[in-house]
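Schema walk-through. Below, the input block comes first and the output block second. Nothing else is stored per chain. Lengths vary across the set, and this one has 200 residues.
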Amino acid sequence: MLHFVAMGKRILILLGHPDPSHDRLCRALADAYADGAQQAGHEIRRIDIATLDIPYLRGQSEFEHSSPASALTEAQAAIAWAEHILVVFPLWLGDMPAMLKAFFEQVLRPGFAFVYRATGFPEQRLAGRTAHVVITMGMPALAYRWLFFAHALRLLKRNILGFVGIRPVKDTIFGGVAAAGNAQRQLWLKRMREAGTNAA
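--- output ---
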């Protein structure tokens, strides 16, 4: 009789909070996910944008013809390695932090993430990968989804990750973080450990 052993997934955790402080909720959520994933036998790599020097692109020619800095080419290698990507960031002024957007602009370049075609949509070079986007915010999660139409989330899922072939993309929103007590935060951490265990 044959016995099959389930293999762990290759998971990249992208912590998109620009503040390197260890007391940030985003960092705790990412750590909880990593703990669950490692205990379940998944292989983990991490990118912490707070530790990177990420220059801003200033034109189309630079985007298409220059090369990212070495730390960002290492980030590209981690993305290429991954089967599943967790992205965690706080909502700032209704969107992802500028540093995280600059990271995506630097790493998701033509030739790596996609290739232009003579006609039609570009070839998606990162197809076959899945993702999970986690956003923290001060407003209630329902207000963000129904009153503000989850703008930053939709942008990231469809126009950035979806554009290069990363799908499906699961999402989790933790709202009201400033008012949340310790018991609520522990429930959020438990939820992220379970997501990591399931590579979800």
